[in-house]
Write a structure and sequence with these properties.
By secondary structure, the protein is mainly alpha-helical. It contains 13 helices and 4 strands.
């Protein structure tokens, strides 16, 4: 089996994308969700605090405590409204962030092949191979590293807030809530940093594994080249057949010409059938085809004239099998009179 040590071609990557095989890191998506959630908690902390404060005052009000049976329904409704207003906006923004975090990585990919049943996915041998693969080991190490970093962060933050927390024993509830919120946001903020770093590492690892999986061998590159460009032998045969057809048709057309005019680059064969017809271009070409037109006209004794300016204009302005425009009547008529021996 040929060694796959060549970088994948753009076509290989496009084909893989059509099958749903793209670079995707679940850590990037989850980090986006977590980071946006922390930002929303930070921006909406004042509103959430106000809602909870009003709910607390309602729950501890004298009216509710003296008549709990009559006022319990109002408390339940107030609790529901607080939960909705405090969580629904955050959940909606976080959901959108999760979708965008995934789309940012893969774009709009509709790969229906990914949902087709595949017997290999149910193969126990393949499952065990994936479990004990190098990729799984790397993922395990990343998870352990992330857990260790988060545990160290929690230890540092909690230790830093132990003394301030002890001094809040006789403080007002609002002060306690403010200190607790500050500690939580501090912990979450540093956790976002850890998540971002780990997400970058995970994405780099996923990209490396993806490119490694898409590597190609020399035989793969040759086969792809054949599929894109065509087999060299068949392509050469098609080119030869094309030129034979062109030159065969060209010879017939030039032999029917009344005159040929050419420059160093181009050649144009003109046909004039009489007073009831207009001169028309029946063959034209440049380079090798122009050389063929001159050769055939010489062999067929077709009058040939070297007039670069008129030849270039005819080649650029008049398509094949089209009559010449009015602006060229005079010089073409002069050429045809010369070809007929009238000048």
């Amino acid at each position: 089996m040929a060694e796959k040590n060549q970088d994948p071609t753009p076509k290989r990557l496009r084909d893989a994308r059509k099958k749903g095989e793209v670079v995707f890191s679940s850590d990037v998506a989850s980090t986006t969700v977590f980071a946006v959630g922390v930002i929303m908690l930070w921006l909406g902390g004042g509103l959430i605090f106000t809602l909870l404060r009003e709910l607390w005052l309602h729950a501890t009000s004298t009216t509710l405590l003296t008549r709990p049976d009559d006022r319990f329904g109002e408390l339940l409704l107030h609790t529901t409204e607080t939960l909705l207003w405090g969580t629904l906006p955050i959940m909606a923004v976080v959901a959108v962030a999760g979708i965008l975090g995934s789309l940012f990585q893969v774009g709009g990919v509709a790969a229906w092949e990914r949902i087709k049943p595949d017997v290999n996915r149910m193969n126990p041998g393949e499952g065990l191979k994936r479990i004990f693969s190098t990729r799984s080991l790397v993922n395990l190490l990343k998870m352990l590293l992330k857990t260790t970093l988060l545990a160290a962060l929690m230890y540092v933050v909690v230790r830093a807030y132990v003394d301030p927390a002890m001094k809040l024993g006789y403080a007002r509830p609002a002060t306690m809530l403010s200190a607790g919120a500050q500690m939580v946001l501090t912990m979450f903020g540093w956790a976002v940093v850890i998540y971002v770093v780990m997400a970058l590492l995970d994405y780099a690892h996923e990209h490396y594994e993806f490119m490694k999986q898409q590597r190609m061998s020399i035989e793969d590159l040759r086969q792809e080249h054949k599929e894109v460009e065509g087999d060299p032998i068949n392509r050469s045969r098609r080119r030869s057949a094309h030129f034979e057809a062109v030159y065969f048709t060209l010879a017939d057309r030039v032999r029917m010409a009344s005159a040929v005019i050419h420059s160093a680059r181009t050649a144009v064969a003109l046909q004039y059938l009489g007073e009831n017809d207009l001169p028309r271009v029946i063959a034209r070409g440049e380079g090798d085809i122009a050389a063929q037109i001159r050769r055939i006209s010489s062999e067929a004794l077709i009058p040939t004239e070297f007039e670069p300016q008129l030849a270039e204009r005819l080649y650029e302005e008049v398509p094949q099998d089209q009559a010449i425009p009015r602006a060229l009547y005079a010089p073409v008529a002069k050429l045809l009179r010369w070809a007929q021996g009238q000048e």
